[in-house]
Amino acid sequence: MVVVGAGMVGAACALYAARAGLDVVLVDRGPVAGGTTGAGEGNLLVSDKEPGPELRLALLSLRLWAELAEPLGAAVEYEPKGGLVVASTPEALTALTDLAAGQRAAGVAAVAVGPDQLRDHEPYLAPGLAGAVRYPQDAQVMPTLAAAHLVRVSGARLETGRTVTGVLRGADGAVRGVRTDRGDLLAPAVVNAAGTWGGEVAAMAGAALPVLPRRGFVLVTEPLPPRVRHKVYAADYVADVASDSAALQTSPVVEGTAAGPVLIGASRERVGFHRSFSLPVVRELAAGATRLFPFLTDVRVMRTYLGFRPYLPDHLPAIGPDPRVPGLFHACGHEGAGIGLATGTGRLLAQVLTGENPELDLTPFRPDRFAESEEAAQ
Amino acid sequence: MPERSPVLAVIGAGPAGLAATLAAAGRGVRVVLVDSAAEPGGQFYRQPARGLGARRPKALHHQWRTWRRLRTGLDARLAAGQVTYLSEHHVWCVERESPGFTVHALLGPEQRESVALRADGVLLATGGYERVLPFPGWTLPGVVTAGGAQALLKGGLVLPGRTVVVAGTGPLLLPVATGLAAAGAKVAALVESADPRAFAHRARSLVGAPAKLVEGAGHAARLGWHGVPLRVRHTVLEAHGTERLESVTISALDSEGRPVPGSERRVLCDTLAVSHGLLPHTDLADGLGCGLDGVTVRVDEEQRTDVPGVWAAGEATGIGGAALSLAEGHIAGRSAAARLRGTTPDPGAWASAARTRTRLRAFFAALDGAYAPAARWVERVTDGTVVCRCEEVTAGAVRAAVGSLGAGDLRTVKLLTRAGMGWCQGRMCEPGVAGVAGCAPAPARRLLARPVPLGVLAEPADPPPPQ
């Protein structure tokens, strides 16, 4: 089988498919983790997901990440640090408490933290916050290391710097492999793990998949002694993640890293593939982060980088076989959660590929679920 | 004349920025000259700090007359109110607005506060920085950059050490060696990896710039005067020392760039000043969205970048020394003054500068080919050698990222190893890491040109500069 895209999701697909006994070639026009994976923070989160199919996928994925961390934890900088979602106002706290109750019913560990206990968990938090919920299952990896090591242990054949230019199909319409700038790769199954560029790969096979980019900036500070223990973010973040608005949204996500720098995300904008710097966006991120952690005011930002999250109109990924093109499978459109959801995605896809029953219902992730609405629109 | 003269922000007060300022000021635009140093001059005309009371600063400089002309010209335009000069302003971002630009700069040595100034046009004269390639022992205290040694001497009237070896490649090594010797250091050797025969092959274009040859010959003569042994087609194999540098091993190179067996010798020294040429500063241009050709800012005949309203001149558009920077700066300043007033400039007005530019670009293109770091330098970088000093990443770690983790480009090497992620953001180590990894030396995108406090970024806007 051929996996197109050597980002986090492609790496996980390669790993679980190879473990299921398939012969895997992983092909990417760039290097490993050259797209959105290399521009992300490495969030493995349940806390930002409302009860539903994505949360189920996240819970499966985090279990699998914990398994993988047994041998690979240090290499991929796996840190089961937990998340702390803070509310600045009583209204925000009420909404957060309601969300946490629903999540708890779905199997998430969520612990209420009163305003007086906040500093026991995060000693440098700003005073005057209304309260928080702690999510012990939230974790972090270094995404580029994670993708590279998963590819390495998968034993898949890695073809970087090789561009897929077409999807080969037989007379019956079934997939026969891919055409690349350096010759054809023949296989009865092709997995589209091209992330933000997943729509282009789908189109090569004659299938429509409306993946669109949502730009995000991340700020990286100078290295610091450990001061931020959890992944800390404001409760508004959950609303932003689920939002359909094209306008800029920034809600700060602040976290320490094993290497010392503090990472500050995450803006969300729908501006196409615009790579230009935006100072107003960076200013909003900085303002949000210093509101949560006043000590950051004197800390310097060393660099800022941007990436493009791949999102689908209903904010759920496309996972599974494409009924329109036999032999074509999709594993893309994970928006800002691709690192976290990669392991579950890879496991489910491997189960489908080997004819097993997938352990989660794939109906909400059907790749052709937008076809009807597109036809209606026309 | 419009009611308000257009404002041109010139970033960098080295040769290119000063020439641009003098060319544009008094031609209907107001120039704001922004520079990070305390005194104008840049690296080339770096001035001793005033408090040091240098009696004969010209002893450290060539082209003193050119400098006097620039300085006098700047003073006259400052007095006439045509130029505002902002020293110790560290520009961290130039923002495109519609219309115009906002230049953001951190103030003074502390760099804790920021100001913003509005401009109708921006002229980037951001200069270059030194390329230093790694070798075993290069992180020992006592190993400095050649440009750093020169800056210490010009700006602080301080010698970096008593016994110095100057090594690497490029036209900077000669003036650094003669400057150090003239100031009283013992220069134990000048070690240049380039092959003199490479110059002979390029004789035709080199003849095109007699002034440069005379300058070079002058340095070479002074080298002899000070008794400095010149070792061409040689390289430093390793720097030795326990607490700090004590000696270096140098070796002759064969025509393939391999050390000649048996030619190694130890040279005792307390300082090694090393340089492998210069690289252009392109962060601000890149942040503005200006197109680059490889590692240099792309400009047209008028020194315009491909972003309307942005010009670039000097080393940022290609390494070529002070005389070329002056010519480019002059052309850019004249073009900007005309264009910002909505008129089309007459290239005839800068014909002489354009001829100088053509001649010197050809000369430096030839020189660049001649001054190449010793071939196969990568083979001599042992796995244990630290290649990224900020993050203490070894050559072995970089090679592992390429070998077993599938890194095919510099960005992935960086993400996998942290090489280039530290305080210098890869400015120091990028060429070395790229060489060891076997990748093309693509410049990293640095959207912030220098570290900025979060408290500065958290403000809705920066205040204007103090009057």
Automatic annotation (TrEMBL), chain B:
CDD domains: GlpA-like_Fer2_BFD-like. PANTHER family: ANAEROBIC GLYCEROL-3-PHOSPHATE DEHYDROGENASE SUBUNIT B. Residues 386-434 form the BFD-like [2Fe-2S]-binding domain. InterPro entries: BFD-like_2Fe2S-bd_dom, BFD-like_2Fe2S-bd_dom_sf, FAD/NAD-bd_sf, FAD/NAD-binding_dom, Metab_Enz_Cyan_OpOx_G3PDH, Opine_Oxase_asu/HCN_bsu. This is FAD/NAD(P)-binding oxidoreductase. GO terms for molecular function: oxidoreductase activity. Residues 8-317 form the FAD/NAD(P)-binding domain. SUPFAM superfamilies: FAD/NAD(P)-binding domain. Pfam families: Fer2_BFD (PF04324), Pyr_redox_2 (PF07992). Keywords: Oxidoreductase.
